[in-house]
Design goal:
The chain has 11 helices and 12 strands. It has about 260 residues and is of the alpha+beta class. Helix 9 packs antiparallel against helix 10 and helix 10 packs antiparallel against helix 11. It starts with a strand and ends with a helix.
């Protein structure tokens, strides 16, 4: 089936086209959608391409705002986004990072989605082209179809950490990744997010509870490691079994929490 490509100069025009055509998909960086095109996916017949500069804009202040079309390569090279550079560099190889985008990563199927997990840990909000705002944590669970224009989150005041667990280095698919936001001084919200421990990035609530107010306490870290997989539902796939993921989740979380 032929696939048409429509280019729009503004996000609002692209949003109207996307809303009116249920057989359309957004062409952001193309790392996922072009694979689907090449494999003959017949669930869509139109790609919507956006050239609005706002879609590629980065704003850094007390709040950080990343346009949906900002690439992993741009994040990795931005001096004010150094805390996110390890996450961006975990996405594919150099060629993939030049095109893989923030918005595309939010909808990347398992085992991908490292940036989506990091944004959940940072408490990010997705801004749609229609003006709606919803937590990325809700979006990754399967929110209504929308064109994500940007994501925004407070500049982290705590310690942000990230780890990707893979059997093939440096750019193999992750059997899991972990993003953590740890408050300094015992105040603030602890957020720990696993990707690969379910069908989408998910918070490890039991581990967060164990660490609350004591993120650097060895006994709290040990308790969080024991509770890492509690309430999570990992799946079997070609990378690892659900049993293996449950067994190693606490080990990798403990290593991340103890890293400096």
């Amino acid at each position: 089936m032929p696939v048409a490509v429509s280019t729009f100069r503004t996000l609002s025009e692209a949003a109207r086209a996307f809303e009116s055509d249920r057989a359309a998909r957004i062409y952001s960086g193309g790392t996922i959608v072009m694979r689907d095109v090449n494999e003959g996916d017949v669930s869509f017949n139109r790609l919507i391409r956006i050239t609005d500069p706002a879609y590629r804009a980065v704003s850094v202040g007390s709040e950080i705002r990343l346009g949906g079309g900002v690439t992993m390569g741009e994040i990795a090279a931005h001096r004010d986004l150094a805390f996110l550079a390890p996450v961006a560099r975990a996405v594919g190889g150099p060629q993939v990072r030049t095109v893989a985008t923030v918005a595309g990563n939010l909808f990347a199927p398992r085992p991908y989605g490292e940036m989506a997990a990091a944004l959940v840990a940072l408490g990010a909000v997705a801004e749609t082209a229609e003006g709606r705002r919803l937590p990325v944590e809700e979006l990754v669970r399967g929110a209504p179809r929308a064109l994500v224009a940007a994501v925004a989150f407070p500049r982290p005041s705590g310690d942000f950490r990230f780890a990707k667990v893979t059997r093939v280095r440096p750019k193999g698919a992750a059997l899991m990744s972990i993003a953590a936001l740890l408050p300094r001084g015992g105040s603030g919200e602890t957020r720990i997010v696993f990707n690969g421990m379910g069908p989408h990035p998910v918070r490890a609530v039991a581990a967060e509870r164990a660490l609350a107010g004591r993120a650097s306490d060895p006994s709290a870290i040990a308790a969080a490691a024991r509770a890492a997989a509690e309430g999570l539902s990992p799946l079997d796939d070609a990378l690892a079994s659900a049993w293996y993921r449950r067994e190693v989740a606490g080990v990798h979380l403990k290593r991340l929490l103890e890293s400096r």
